Every structure is written in structure tokens, then in C-alpha cells.
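Quick review question:
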């Protein structure tokens, strides 16, 4: 009996000292094309919106084409997650910023992430794929 007790005691400290290696939002990234269903994309976007509301993180969609790189970033501006700062960058035009509703963010992200690879026909084969990811605001 004492050996069983010793085994349990020896496991407890390591179980309590293990820290999660990543933040809960760290795996919220997606590369286009993908194989997710429309319902899966809606769920994915809802998860991202929850993290944007409750953590100090933002979402970024990066699109690369022959015309250059375009970035769209979303950051919650209120505690209830109903208003978001939308920052848009185009290599030719620079940065533009506006405030949009949660519904507008949801709709834009769902539409962009549902795009099929056929929508990318104007691009050269060496163009990077479109990507979406959630990362800390200070990295923007």
C-alpha cells in the first residue's frame, strides 16, 4: 500500500507544475484552401470572435495576389464584443481604419474563409495562400 501511495505522491507535483504550452486562441488559424464545411467555418469564426472579446488578441486575414499583400485586422473595442476596430492595409493605398459591428466582422470573416481556391485564379503559382490567424494585439 505504501508503494502505491508513493507512486501517487510522485505524480502529483508534476501534474500540478505542468503549464499549458499555448494560449486557448493559439490554434485559431486557417489557410485557404481548406476542407472545412460551411457550418465548421461559422463555428470557427464564432470561436475567434469569443477570443477577441475576452482576450487581448486580434484577428488578421492576409491575402496575397499579383496586386500585392492585403491585411485586414479586427480588434474588439468594447468589453461586450459588439464593436470592433477594422484596420485594412493595401500595399498601394496604405492603412485605413474604421469601427464595425460584430455582425459585420462575422459576415466578412465567414465570407472570406468560405472562398474556394477557384477564387484565386488571378494569382501566380508562387503566391502565398490566404491565411487567417488570431494573435496578441501587441503583435499588430
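Suggested answer, residue by residue:
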Amino acid at each position: 500500500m505504501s508503494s502505491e501511495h508513493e507512486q501517487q505522491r510522485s505524480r502529483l507535483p508534476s501534474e500540478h507544475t505542468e503549464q499549458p504550452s499555448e494560449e486557448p486562441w493559439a490554434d485559431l488559424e486557417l489557410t485557404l484552401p481548406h476542407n472545412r464545411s460551411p457550418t465548421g467555418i461559422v463555428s470557427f469564426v464564432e470561436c475567434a470572435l469569443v477570443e477577441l472579446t475576452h482576450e487581448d488578441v486580434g484577428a488578421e486575414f492576409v491575402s496575397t495576389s499579383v496586386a500585392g499583400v492585403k491585411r485586414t485586422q479586427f480588434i474588439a473595442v468594447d468589453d461586450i464584443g459588439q464593436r470592433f476596430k477594422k484596420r485594412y492595409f493595401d500595399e498601394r493605398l496604405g492603412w485605413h481604419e474604421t469601427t464595425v459591428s460584430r455582425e459585420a466582422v462575422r459576415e466578412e470573416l465567414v465570407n472570406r474563409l468560405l472562398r474556394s481556391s477557384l477564387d484565386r485564379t488571378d494569382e501566380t503559382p508562387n503566391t502565398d495562400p490566404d491565411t487567417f490567424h488570431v494573435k496578441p494585439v501587441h503583435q499588430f
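Why it works: DSSP finds three helices and six strands in the chain. Confidence is low (pLDDT under 50) at residues 1-20.
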